[in-house]
Amino acid sequence: MVKFKDYYDTLGVSRSATDKEIKSAYRKLARQHHPDANPGDKAAEDKFKDIAEAYEVLKDPEKRRRYDMLGSGWKAGADFQPPPDFGGFNFDFGDLGDLGKGSPFSDFFEMVFGQTLRQAAGRGGQAPPRGAPGRAGQDQEAEIELSVEELARGTTRMIQVSAPGMRSKTLEVKIPAGVRGGSRVRVPGEGAPSALGGARGDLYLKVKVKPHPYYSLDGDSLISEAQISPAQAVLGGEVTVTTIDGLVRITVPAGTQPGRLLRLRGKGLPKIKRQERGDHLVRIKIVVPTQLSAEEKALYEKLALIEHDRLRATSGT
After folding, report:
1. Rounded to an integer, what distance in angstroms lies between the CA atom of residue 10 and that of residue 31?
2. What pLDDT score does 268 carry?
3. Are strands 140-146 and 203-209 parallel, antiparallel or unpaired?
4. How many whole angstroms separate alpha carbon 29 and alpha carbon 150?
5. Is 140-209 the same fold as 2-121?
6. Which of 74, 75, 146, 309 could be cross-linked to 150 through a Cys-Cys bond (beta carbons 3.0 to 4.6 Å apart)?
7. For residues 204 and 210, what is the distance between their CA atoms, to the nearest angstrom?
8. How far is the C-alpha of 150 from the C-alpha of 245, rounded, in Å?
9. Distances (CA, A) of 204 to 55, 172, 183
10. Which residues pair with 282 in a beta bridge?
11. 194-230 tens-digit pLDDT
12. Could you give phi then psi for residue 182, rounded to 5 degrees?
């Protein structure tokens, strides 16, 4: 049996403590017991691990809810066996692995939040021998920010990863063309190690798209804006548009209205696993000049008179 750990007591807060109170208590205790502030003090190091473990659970609403399901009847020091089907979670272990060899978390934590050794091993409560096949480690997730150009062409990134009980390392990760914001890129075998001798979990990189000064996204389509003058809107003409493939000249039809979308087919983002691309949509914006030469002003005044006469003739007044 392992010993039940009262995380609320560890942080010195009540079971009804708010997130703010829990965070404040953790920061105060972590500063006091951090190994850097207590070099060579094994007791302080152990205390710091207990504090970090308690905060790891209580700071997360779902983990805290899961922990609270154990009920208030358990007391620190009592032999503990978790209820059935107490599954695991994915955790952000931070730099706690630097504090020592193996998992920085207690047997209680591993039993409740990493699957019980008895359930996972199926050996009557005994952990499997070191090196024996077992349950794989937890998958981990991190965020990676990509530009629109990297979505379109793919890229290679150097990223630093860390897992509990292991030193951080730098990986070269290839991001395929066609990924989208919110999608995940799998990096096999770079997740958390298994506490039961199984394979390591996987690392998933969740894609976030950097804001772009020129493009916005709509599924597979890129959207940009082209500014034209009132004369171009009336008479039509050509404008230059910047695409991810370079500059392209497009024709603006006569009588174009503001907000109209002109389509450049196949100039958008590539579709992953498909040999085709989305479109580039050009939204037309009509820009009214604020400074006119004397000649331009005279021409606009003449145009205004012509329009006035045309409206009078149309209305019959």
Report:
1. 15
2. 94
3. parallel
4. 43
5. no
6. 146
7. 19
8. 13
9. 24, 14, 10
10. 224, 262
11. 766 678 888 999 999 999 999 999 989 999 999 999 9
12. 95, -15
Q: Which of 194, 188, 89, 192 is nearest to 133 (CA)?
A: 194
Residues 272/176, Cβ–Cβ less than 8 Å = yes
Q: Per CATH, the architecture of 140-209 is what?
A: Sandwich (2.60)
Mean pLDDT (the chain) is: 80
- Residue ranges per domain, the chain? 2-121, 140-209, 216-286
Whole-number Cα distances in Å, 213 to 109, 217, 229, 264: 47, 12, 22, 19
Task: Tell me the pLDDT tens digit for each residue of 61-87.
Answer: 888 887 887 654 454 445 555 544 444
pLDDT at 285: 96
Q: For residues 64, 70, 74 and 80, what is the CA-based torsion angle, rounded to 10 degrees?
A: -110
Annotate the chain with three-state secondary structure. CEECCCHHHHHCCCCCCCHHHHHHHHHHHHHHHCHHHCCCCHHHHHHHHHHHHHHHHHCCHHHHHHHHCCCCCCCCCCEECCCCCCCCCCCCCCCHHHHCCCCCCCHHHHHHHCCCHHHHHCCCCCCCCCCCCCCCCCCEEEEEEECHHHHHHCEEEEEEECCCCCCCEEEEEEECCCCCCCCEEEECCCCCCCCCCCCCCCEEEEEEECCCCCCEEECCEEEEEEEECHHHHHHCEEEEEEECCEEEEEEECCCCCCCCEEEECCCCCECCCCCCECCEEEEEEECCCCCCCHHHHHHHHHHHHHHHHHHHHHHCC
How confident is the model over 126-136, as a mean pLDDT? 48
Query: What topology is assigned to 2-121 in CATH?
Result: Helix Hairpins (1.10.287)
pLDDT at res. 125: 41
CATH fold for domain 216-286? HSP40/DNAj peptide-binding domain (2.60.260)
Write out pLDDT tens, residues 93-113. 333 333 333 456 676 676 666
Phi, psi for 159 (deg, rounded to 5): -125, 150
